[in-house]
Specification:
- This protein is α/β, with parallel strands linked by helices.
- Helix content is 40%, strand content 15%.
- It contains eleven helices and twelve strands.
- The strands form two sheets. Strands 2-1-3-4-5-11 form a six-stranded parallel beta sheet, with helices on both faces. Strands 7-6-8-9-10-12 form a six-stranded mixed beta sheet, with helices on both faces.
- Strand 8, helix 10 and strand 9 form a beta-alpha-beta unit.
- Helix 5 packs across helix 11, helix 7 packs across helix 8 and helix 9 packs across helix 10.
- It is elongated, with a radius of gyration of 27 Å.
């Protein structure tokens, strides 16, 4: 029957495997028309498309996406390798990647890496290769991909979130240095003699860049550089480090490398009877959803995680099309959000 005819064929018996030919018979169209509908072709008239879709629903037909992928030479899937899902930045970046990929008609396949070693990461790339992905996005804030002897499996397009890597990769990065500089200059501009730093873990690119910018900004202003104290991004580590800072009478301003550690710091200062911002001003980094509900509301550096995720997906797709072969980092600007946790020093 022609594509414009009415459906007269009988549906296959329940329990048998439904084929494209079965859908074509039930819808009264050709198999080529069913194929065009499955592939989202705009050349099928709406009335015919609806009849084919109705037949698919009635028969429970699911297009063979693997076969179509082999035919097209693409799988419409992006692999994502991530080291940890315990940090705000990684979770929000992953959410943005998934949303942006779906908008472009791509799915994502997530591979968590429990231990950030070369063997583990290479194993993750191998698994993604077996799962048939078109490109890989890496969210891994540790010194690994820049190792001189690290080599990726051939044939994969790779985009990295926040890293200092060579021209094998495309890079999208938040302007960590600019954001940290804004935080320190905000505190110095309020009149504080210097700014202490509650830093993140030493192996983190994020922590390293924010600490470097903190140190360089103080030197540019000709101010003393106190010894930093380190946390591990958690509020608990911020509390432990905060006990040390709270005991230092010369500490009147602190730049915390993320908002969670700033939360722990606020608790430590409160327990030591040091008011914020009366005795100590505090600036965080990230602008997590709860930052405005801290006591006091936290001045912080806002990262645009949604834009980072969108650009990671866009860069991956451009590299797939051969339109983006360079590794110059695409920087996403940050924004200083001033709230009640910062003020001029007493006196």
């Amino acid at each position: 029957m022609s594509d414009g005819g009415e459906a007269t064929a009988q549906a296959p018996r329940r329990g048998t495997r439904v084929s494209m030919a079965d859908v074509a018979r039930l819808a009264g169209v050709s198999s080529q028309t069913v194929s065009r509908v499955s592939n989202g072709s705009p050349s099928v008239v709406p009335r015919t498309r609806e009849r084919v879709l109705a037949a698919m629903r009635e028969l429970g037909y699911r297009p063979n996406s693997a076969a179509r992928a082999l035919k097209r030479g693409e799988f419409r899937t992006l692999g994502v390798i991530v080291f940890t899902l315990s940090t705000t930045g990684n979770v929000r970046t992953l959410e943005a990647i998934a949303t942006s990929a779906a908008h472009e008609g791509y799915a994502i396949t997530l591979i968590p890496v429990a231990v950030p070693t070369q063997d583990e990461v290479l194993g993750a790339f191998t698994r993604l290769g077996e799962l048939a992905v078109d490109a890989v996005i890496v969210i891994m804030e540790v010194h690994l991909l820049d190792a001189a002897d690290f080599r990726l499996p051939p044939g994969l397009q790779v985009v990295v979130a926040d890293s200092e890597v060579d021209d094998r990769y495309g890079v999208v990065d938040t302007d960590q240095i600019g954001g940290a500089r804004d935080a320190v200059e905000h505190l110095l501009g309020l009149g504080h003699r210097t700014v202490h730093h509650l830093a993140g873990p030493a192996e983190s690119f994020f922590a390293e860049r924010r600490a470097r910018a903190w140190r360089e900004t103080l030197r540019t202003w000709g101010r003393p550089v106190p010894a930093p104290v380190n946390g591990d991004w958690s509020a608990e580590s911020g509390y432990r480090a905060g006990l040390e800072l709270a005991a230092d009478p010369d500490c009147t301003a602190v730049f915390a490398a993320n908002d969670q550690m700033a939360l722990g710091l606020l608790r430590a200062l409160h327990e030591h009877g040091r008011s914020v911002p009366g005795d100590v001003s505090v600036v965080g980094f990230d602008d997590i959803a709860e930052a405005g509900s801290f006591l006091p509301p936290l001045t912080t550096i806002r990262q645009d995680f949604a834009e980072v995720g969108r650009l990671l997906v866009a860069k991956a797709l451009r590299r797939l099309r051969g339109e983006d072969g360079g590794a110059a980092a695409t920087l996403v600007p940050t924004e200083l959000v001033v709230r009640a946790s910062t003020a001029p020093p007493r006196g």
